[in-house]
Amino acid sequence: MANKRSMNMKRISIARTTEVNTMLSLLMDLDEGKNGDYMGFQESRIVYRTEMKGRINSYRAQKIARFLGKNISKSHLVKFSKNKEEIKKLDMELDNLKKINPHFSMFGDRKITVDEFLEINEKSLWGYWNYVRGADVISALAKLDKNQN
Known about the structure:
This protein is mostly helical. 67% of the residues lie in helices and 0% in strands. Helix 1 crosses helix 7 (122-148). The radius of gyration is 18 Å and the shape is elongated. The mean pLDDT is 84.
């Protein structure tokens, strides 16, 4: 009986770890301006993701994670810390994109806030998060089961 309990606890631990890693991957993809995993941000109809490029700091990362029902420890969020010069450079790049294409953003000269991003993309983000989280957890648990047999 203890062996079965031990195995179940291991499965729960792997599922939780996988969820955290999947959330960190989602946040890193947003911060780096990538298109996400599997079906991607574009397929999920997540809009204004390019405006979030380089703007995910630890506060915004935690806010997005909590919005999607996941708490991430501060030790994981350190990778999202940025210095002021880095942020200014990224903001200038975004401003240049807006000058080249005035229809780039419905927000005009100001930057989209994380709250606006979450409100606009609520259903799309939830759909993407549930799909990617499910696929990653199933894959991790299948790998565990394969290694146990």
